[in-house]
Write a structure and sequence with these properties.
The protein is α/β, with parallel strands linked by helices and 221 residues long. The protein has a single domain (6-220), classed as TIM Barrel (Alpha-Beta Barrel), CATH 3.20.20.70. It has eight helices and eight strands. The protein has helices spanning 19-26, 50-59, 73-82, 98-107, 154-164, 182-188, 197-200, 205-220; strands spanning 6-7, 33-38, 64-69, 87-91, 111-116, 134-138, 170-174, 192-194. Strand 3 (64-69), helix 3 and strand 4 form a beta-alpha-beta unit. Helix 3 (73-82) runs parallel beside helix 4 (98-107) and helix 6 packs parallel to helix 8. The chain starts with 5 loop residues before the first strand and ends with a helix. The relative contact order is 0.17. It binds D-xylitol-5-phosphate (DX5) and zinc ion. The site of D-xylitol-5-phosphate has 21 residues, from strand 2 and helix 7. Zinc ion is lined by residues 10, 34, 36, 67, 174, 194.
Length: 221
């Protein structure tokens, strides 16, 4: 079965002082721009507060896929939907009212995403599937770019693919995706790929995205 493949590069490893130019290098070949929001509470790192993130989202030439690694996410996520993100992903572990927050994200016009850390199981959260437009299976501990891909997460990706069945729910993986690892993730059932350092540490980010896409496409057919 040929699955639709999406590449959603993360700008976490881009040059934050020249973000417009960095996004400009990849916007033409990306499905969405993956924006990592970290609060130094849910994860031990900080990226953007809501105000700076809003400026990036409003100025982005293509849709933004916001990955919220923040505490108090039930209050914060709706704001990211309201400001126009194409997709807003919350961490299951950070939410006290997953169903309500996913519903609000959708009602504000964004796709709803549910992310699961390496130590959490899909079985615990599969009951939310009807409210989810995308599952995100983390293939590193959230917090930093440039970490090693955890191939032991592929069983969880396979289990999530089964949970999804024929529904049009995207299955994203995030962490350590590169030319070396993307095919393993495709074979396990992922269709949407975040890549940060693989893209921004390469000499030609757009070329790298095209290379990742074509490897993933051939592995999926
Ligand atoms: C990590 C972030 C990722 C990160 C991926 O917590 O969620 O999106 O940017 O970076 P790489 O591709 O370098 O692992
Ligand atoms: Zn991310």
């Amino acid at each position: 079965m040929t699955r639709e493949i999406r590449i959603t590069p993360s700008i976490l490893n881009a040059d934050f002082d020249h973000l417009d130019q960095e996004i400009g290098k990849i916007a033409g070949v990306s499905d969405l721009i993956h924006l990592d929001i970290m609060d130094n509470i849910f994860v031990p790192n900080f990226t953007f507060d809501f105000e700076s993130a809003s400026t990036i989202i409003k100025g982005c030439p293509i849709g933004v896929d916001a990955h919220l690694m923040v505490a108090n996410v039930d209050e914060i996520a709706p704001k990211y939907a309201q400001v126009g993100c194409a997709s807003v992903t919350i961490h299951a572990e950070a939410s006290e009212n997953i169903a309500q927050t996913l519903r609000t994200i959708r009602s504000e016009g964004s796709r709803s995403g549910l992310a699961i850390k390496p130590n959490s199981s899909i079985e615990e959260y599969e009951r939310f599937s009807d409210l989810v437009d995308m599952f995100l299976i983390m293939t590193v501990e959230p917090g930093f770019g440039g970490q090693k891909f955890m191939s032991e997460m592929m069983d969880k990706v396979r289990a999530t693919r089964k949970v999804i069945g024929n529904r049009p729910i995207w299955l994203q993986v995030d962490g350590g995706i590169s030319l070396e690892t993307i095919e393993i993730a495709v074979e396990a059932g992922a269709d949407t790929f975040v890549a940060g350092s693989a893209v921004f540490k390469s000499d030609d980010p757009a070329h790298m995205i095209n290379a990742l896409r074509s490897l993933a496409k051939s592995a999926s057919s």
